[in-house]
Write a structure and sequence with these properties.
Elements (H helix, E strand, L loop, with lengths): L1 E2 L5 E2 L7 H13 L8 H10 L2 H8 L4 H8 L3 H7 L5 H10 L12 H9 L24 H7 E3 L43 E3 H19 L5 H58 L4 H6 L1 H11 L6 H40 L15 H4 L20 H33 L9 H6 L5 E2 L16 H9 L14 E2 L1 H13 L9 H7 L3 E3 L4 E3 L2 E7 L1 H14 L8 E5 L1 H10 L11 E3 L12 H12 L14 E3 L11 E6 L4 E3 L13 H11 L11 E3 L3 E6 L4 H6 L1
Antiparallel strand pairs: 1-2, 3-4, 5-6, 7-9, 7-10, 8-9, 9-13, 10-16, 11-12, 14-15
Length: 709
């Protein structure tokens, strides 16, 4: 082997013949070993015997032994290559019928050289090619490119390409070898057939000459041409039967050699793995790295286990197994830490679950590896002693406090640097809970609507703690202050007559106001409608339009609904979240910590477990169950409010229902005439006007704020 530039050894291309090696191995295993004699003694005896006796002895040798004997000295080479000793080769092949027989037209020494000779090109001497028995040659790729010719490229006497049924195709031997370095073949089709260029030219000249003589009327030439064609085709057919058997034998022996090498390397891999386990490495790590160990052993070419060979690759094997051991221990410790953290969360108030930090954040605040120091095997939660569990519980409590303190401090620093309020309160928690301070998630604001507008610590912490939709996406670890959304939120609060410096998110949520985007209309069946948003949904809508680059929303404009209008919209809105969604939990215990249930199942649980009566559903109040904010669920579908024509008239003849119905003027007249038989409706008696929209507002921004946006 020679060293490469990167320091790893480079294996030289071998010239070993797999056929010869496998044959010698079979003979060595099948014949008994003779002890007490040496090769030198055998040679001395053969030299003293007469030639006739030597030839009789040679007839009992294997053809590969005759080939090797011809390489010993000039005397043996002259003796075995003499034409008068060909019967020795013939008898040797007869005694070994498992070998492919020599085809006609090829001498026994030449055939033996093709079977057992080194993998060297007979033309240029390059290394690597194997014998092509179909053509009885051994050429490399470069020599084969100008020694072989595809059969479909041969021209006949008229200058046309020959076809598959041409007589020339049956007069030359063809090969379907894929490459010159492996015993693999194409499907035997006409377009893939290759033949020797020399043989094609030699046969084509004779056939062309005989055809020319036949055209000039030379007597008996056609008979000679027919006999020559038949004889040549017959020779090619007979030779093909011999060479097909040789090719099949070569492939069978080649596969047998590869299988034996594979089994030998597997035994080496098994012994190396067992040796690593004896050195103290975990069986799981060794089995996981089995394919890497296999690659290392195959690169080194080890087919037999020896202490020297193991010492050569020991460092590489231990490096791989140690790396896997550290990775496994880290994964096991993370899994155990996550299980312990989940158990700790269950001991806390369920209302705080959504605001707790995710477990991966714990590794940034505390060195949990120090808790498992010296443990190469990490068991489950049942194997942990109470003292260690108490220590971990203390660490989790400190971690939650440290994470919450650091996160709030970072958020407050953002507010102090980029606050849109002229007078910010000095108290920290109210400042973070103000409805005018809007944060956004830079990691998912382009693909998720919930990450575009985050107001209040509970919303921010719930978003960070929400599970990832894909393991290939980075978790939402932090939020940034959004000045654009904060300006819109401040203007929205002012349009309601509230003070942005003192209005909290809870105050805005409790009002139940509804807003319309003055820039958006949704035509439905000839009626222009607008989506009625709550204040958070409207801010998300404006952020979406800003990110999409909508020119019409460059200066936001919105309409505020009156109290009656907001009540009308809320009465038509669907319940959100839906009771059938599995996002509900019990607010009294941790029964639904891992698997949230539907609202009905949560109510049944509270009635049966906490009230002791499965029929006590009427005693369950809204504080007993809640939506698990850690779950991901889709946004609410806003109600479509009729704008043009405006539905703002109410029928006073109809009884009051929980869901209010409004009409436009034309539809109301038809309704009163058909339903109540009123042909001349009067205001205040038959119908009344309901004020839906209190006013339209336009965002007020200075030029400096616009430039910053």
């Amino acid at each position: 082997m020679q060293p490469e530039s990167n320091g790893r050894p480079r294996r030289i291309l071998a010239i070993k013949n797999f056929l010869a090696g496998q044959t010698k191995k079979s003979l060595r295993l099948s014949s008994p070993q003779v002890k007490g004699s040496s090769t030198t003694d055998v040679h001395l005896i053969l030299f003293r015997l007469p030639i006739e006796t030597n030839l009789v002895v040679f007839e009992h040798l294997h053809p590969i032994d005759l080939y090797h004997l011809s390489l010993v000295s000039r005397y043996y080479r002259r003796l075995l290559l003499d034409k008068r000793t060909l019967d020795v080769w013939r008898t040797s092949y007869t005694r070994h019928p498992d070998l492919p027989a020599c085809p006609p037209g090829t001498s026994y020494p030449q055939w033996t050289f093709l079977l057992f000779g080194p993998r060297i090109c007979t033309e240029c001497g390059s290394q690597g090619p194997v014998a092509d028995f179909s053509l009885c040659v051994r050429y490399c790729e470069e020599c084969a490119s100008h020694k072989f010719v595809f059969l479909q490229t041969i021209l006949d006497s008229f200058g046309r390409y020959i076809q598959e049924d041409d007589v020339m195709c049956s007069m030359v031997a063809c090969s379907f070898r894929i490459n010159t370095k492996a015993y693999t073949f194409f499907n035997p089709t006409f377009r893939r057939a290759k033949c020797l260029l020399k043989e094609v030219e030699w046969t084509s000249k004779r056939v062309t000459l005989l055809k020319i003589l036949a055209e000039y009327g030379v007597p008996s030439v056609e008979t000679v041409l027919a006999e020559y064609t038949w004889t040549r085709s017959k020779i090619v057919e007979i030779t093909k039967r011999y060479t097909d058997k040789a090719n099949s034998w070569a492939i069978r022996v080649y596969r047998q050699a590869l299988n034996e090498k594979e089994l030998a390397q597997r035994r080496v891999i098994q012994k190396c793995s067992h040796k690593l386990q004896n050195l103290g490495y975990d069986t799981r790590d060794v089995e996981f790295c089995r394919h890497i160990i296999d690659t290392i052993i195959r690169q080194e070419g080890l087919i037999r286990y020896t202490p020297k060979g193991f010492r050569k690759i020991r460092q590489d094997l231990e490096t791989v197994v140690k790396r896997r051991m550290l990775s496994r221990l880290k994964a096991e410790r993370e899994t155990l830490t996550q299980d312990l953290y989940s158990d700790y969360q269950k001991t806390l108030d369920p209302s705080k679950w959504s605001t707790l930090p995710p477990v991966y954040q714990a590794f940034y605040f505390f060195d949990f590896d120090a808790l498992f120091e010296g443990q190469t095997k990490v068991g489950g939660k049942d194997d942990i002693n109470p003292e260690f569990l108490k220590e971990v519980t203390t660490v989790f409590g400190n971690f939650i406090q440290a994470w919450e303190r650091a996160s709030k401090s970072e958020l407050l620093q953002m507010i102090s640097k980029a606050s849109v309020l002229s007078q910010a309160p000095q108290v920290s928690v109210p400042t973070l809970e103000l409805a005018a301070h809007v944060f956004t998630c830079p990691n998912c604001n382009l693909r998720s609507a919930k990450g575009r507008v985050l107001i209040g610590w509970e919303a921010i912490a719930s978003h960070i703690n929400a599970p990832r939709t894909s393991k290939y996406r980075q978790p939402c670890a932090r939020c940034i202050y959004s000045k654009n959304a904060s300006i819109r939120s401040m203007e929205l609060i002012r349009s309601l007559g509230l003070d942005p410096t003192s209005t909290k998110r809870q105050d805005m949520d409790s009002r139940g106001d509804r807003f319309l985007c003055a820039r958006c209309l949704a035509p439905r069946n000839g009626v222009n409608k607008a989506k009625a948003y709550n204040w958070i949904e409207y801010l998300r809508h404006q952020e979406e339009m800003r990110l999409a680059g909508e020119v019409a929303h460059s200066v936001p404009s919105w309409r505020v609904l009156t109290g009656q209008g907001a009540a009308y919209v809320r009465s038509h809105e669907h319940q959100y979240p839906l009771p059938s969604w599995k996002i509900w939990r019990c607010n009294r215990c941790a029964a639904h910590f891992s698997e949230p249930v539907t609202r009905r199942e949560a109510i049944d649980h509270v009635a049966e477990v906490h009230f002791g009566d499965s029929n006590a559903h009427s005693r369950v109040v809204s504080e007993d169950i809640a939506v698990d904010r850690r779950c991901r669920f889709g946004p609410r579908r806003p109600f479509l409010l009729d704008i043009d024509p405006e539905h703002h008239l109410r029928c006073l003849r109809c009884p009051e229902l929980p869901v209010l119905k409004l009409w436009d003027r034309q539809s109301l007249e038809v309704h009163l005439r058909v339903k109540h038989d009123v042909h001349d409706p009067r205001n205040g008696v038959d119908w009344s006007l309901v004020q839906i929209i209190s006013g339209t507002f336009l965002e007020e921004r200075t030029s400096l704020q616009a430039n910053q946006e």
